[in-house]
Amino acid sequence: MKIGFLFGSFDPIHIGHLHMISTVFLHNIVDKVIVVPTIQNPWKTNKAASFNDRCTMINMAIKPFDNKAELSTIEENIEGTTYTYKDCQILREQYKNDDLFIIAGTNVAQQIIKWKNFEEEIKPYFGVIEISRNSDKINSNHYKYKSYVNVKTIPLDISSTMIRDMVKNNLNPYPYITSDLINFINSQNLYR
Q: How far apart are the first and last CA of the chain?
């Protein structure tokens, strides 16, 4: 089975993330996508919404994909700083008989080779699926991955920061996130 892993804070998950998942299915690149939220991104200083709240939002958002997309909460059990290579160590053990890929937008795909322990813990085991929003910008580092797929897609200029700012400023973030997520965010008083 081909499995794609989408890593991130997902604070909150939004239509751009869902578009990436849809894109890999549309092009029949993977059989399953596993969304892996981080407890706390080691490169970000802002405190994210609680891990449980973000996991609830992820489950709500990926529900329409049925059993083709699922949530992984492996970071709950990782000691110390949660770097992606630690996730990858666990995931490659869990899915040792599968072909493994990291799904990433162009900006992230170009940074993966700089991730902590990339050469030892990620490169030999994971291919990369780059979801490219700009058809002219193709990752020149693709030869450094185990395998590489570039998928060109329509540009969606959306970020979780934009969603948080909209909520903070009492603006309706629909259609960037679903109405279920908006209701959840409001009920939990997130991002205010």
A: 42
